[in-house]
Amino acid sequence: MAIITIDIISDIVCMWCFIGKRRLDKAIHLHKKTYPGGSADKVVITWHPYYLQHNPSPHSVEKRVLADKNLAHMTPEERTGLMNRMDQIGRAVGIRLNHHGKIGSTRDAHRLILLSQIEDKKRDQSHSGELQDAMAEKLFQAYHEQAKDISDREVLREIGRDVLGLQAAEVDAWLNDEDNGRRVDYEAQRNREQVSSGVPVFLIQGKEHRVDGAQDIEDFMELFVKIREST
């Protein structure tokens, strides 16, 4: 049996981060299913915050408004081609991208991931990271597939209930505690200083292996085999 640790630096509004997560999920599933003895391997995933700050406004704005601004240099045909390409890449890993909805700050969403990390340690002494991984998946789905505003408190209450079984008041209490916000801000700033190529970034076995971007499933699997054969 091998223990494979994966630290993921990402932001929820990052489409490639969601695609990278799904590719990683598939690679882990295939490794456990196909590699001899791989089913016994333990994969521990830890999520870390990064602020892309796509929206400079202090309040949420329509995604399409920002798209019109950021893609103004492209012709309508080029924009349509880009959207179609992203839709196709998403569908290949089971993602149905929704380009509607609003974009706001991801600070509170990252705070929910932090809360799920703490709950992981309370509920699972093996520290598998399953709760925080489920939280990240739910937030990605809400933003990219369901066109929900993940800076909206009601949306975060719903996700906190679904993933952690928390009451709305418990989610509010956590999000109202600025110590948690400062903790996320500090880590996000530290990650921004360390990551020069953008996100996602996957650090495997500490910093032994680093994967930048949403690499192919086969790239992750090759690393898993390398780790397995070195144990």
UniProtKB/TrEMBL annotation:
One of its GO terms (molecular function) is oxidoreductase activity. This is Thioredoxin-like protein. Pfam families: DSBA (PF01323). It comes from the Eukaryota. Residues 5-222 form the DSBA-like thioredoxin domain. It comes from Aspergillus steynii IBT 23096. The lineage of its organism: Eukaryota, Fungi, Dikarya, Ascomycota, Pezizomycotina. InterPro entries: DSBA-like_thioredoxin_dom, Thioredoxin-like_sf. SUPFAM superfamilies: Thioredoxin-like.
